[in-house]
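Human: If only I could read backbone structure tokens as easily as an amino acid sequence. Take your time, and here it is.
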Amino acid sequence: MRAATGLCLMAAALLSGCAQIGYLSQAVDGHLRLVWAARPVPELVADASLDERLRERLALSQRIRDFASRELALPDNASYRRYADLRRGAAVWNVVATPELSLRLKTWCYPVMGCAGYRGFFDRAEAEAYAQRLRDDEGLEVLVYGVPAYSTLGWSRLFGGDPLLNTFITYPEGELARMIFHELAHQVAYAPDDTEFNESFATTVERLGVLTWLAGPERAAAREQYLQGDERRRRFQTEAMAWRLKLESVYAGPLDEAAKRAAKAELQRQMRAAPPPGYEAWYARANNASLALLASYNQLSPAFEALFERQGRDWPTFYAEVRRLADLPKAQRRQQLLMNP
């Protein structure tokens, strides 16, 4: 599962007076190192010593970036106009956590961005150490996962915009487009304290946007590759969400805690017995945290797709309605998003 996060590390770090100093320090240092490592794409492409494969990928990224603003009405700014090689496999490592008998994500609160169901670290060892403390001190089920990109919600315009990264620049064409569209969508609309709303909205933009990008005979090969991968991904998501519903039913049911633990263990055994091809590693470590995270990216996507249709498939009109919903109280926002046309 791709997990591109709407993490606003820089804004939180600069403006918070109450979060832990150590966390803020790594956030500031990590983000500044990332933006300072970035160079303008035209400058890199003009460099005769640049690897030809990277040159081609950077050129493709700029065509996708132009398309994002021209055809999808995504922000036309400096984001994804520069490139940085971080010399590592992830931009940040996120920690997500849930109680033992619940699928509700633990949240952490930040200034400006509000509360979110993840906490990000630029150092994997720090993320793993923090996750272990959550297990030991709070008895939580925890997942640590690498994130190939994150959005600063537009704050990085002060530093040249969010950059392209080595962590995703080599993705297949359709996956690269999805990544850029997803992260730009976070700059369009953001609801503090509602990870599911934010990530499902961005997921919807990426899914609809990439199909538009891949339309046309000149992209037939890339479209076929994307559709095959997307079909596998959707089957996985459907199956995993079905297991999530079964666990949710156990947790919400009348059994005592001991019986719930036993029922949970049996469901997990069944779930891991026959994982879909390509997702063996995900199923091997699947827990409440990973299932809750998956839901946050996909649970509301059908509602957003329906909203897009109700807005006449017009991107600016759709975004305006999403921004209106984002400004509402959470319960009212959810009710209006899920209403029938």
